[in-house]
Amino acid sequence: MNPTVQHLVPLLVALHTGACADPATSVAGRSDDELVADLLARIADDHTWDQPPAWEGTPWITAGSPHGTWVDIRVHPIGADVLGRDPMPYGTVLTKTQLDAPDAPSGVVNAMWKLRGLDRDDGAWFWAQWVDDRLETAGPAVHECLGCHRSGADFIRSAVDAPGVPPA
Questions:
Q1: Where do the domains of the chain lie?
Q2: Above pLDDT 70, what percent of the chain?
Q3: Model's pTM, two decimal places?
Q4: Given 23, 36, 97, 149, which residue has the most CB atoms within 10 angstroms?
């Protein structure tokens, strides 16, 4: 074997197996617990992220959503400029903070994170929900999330469309 090629083999194997995968965009052999910890760290500053363009300054969605009437949706900069594209880029994170009223967080935070290495049939999203800082559910195939989100472009629903009419 050519000596130059011989030195490249370990690098090619590492790249193929995901050993050098970017943790912002890939599962790379991490457990759900590790992904939850990483996701929680990533969303710590979500209040500085942009709202979807159709939602800027609008903290509500139509009644009947499982997330409640009032929410604050934020998009990580990786996906902010291409929101609604199908598929969204790996590394995209969206958060939806449920509110009891405008500017009154309820303590419920939902997040979805697009990662390489997850099942594309389920959108390749990792889902999580915290209630009062306690993890309620997390994983790549959370059926409570998939049931509704399957109908959206790359599993994203309300963040792409303009919000509904504010409640009276």
A1: 23-149
A2: 78
A3: 0.82
A4: 97
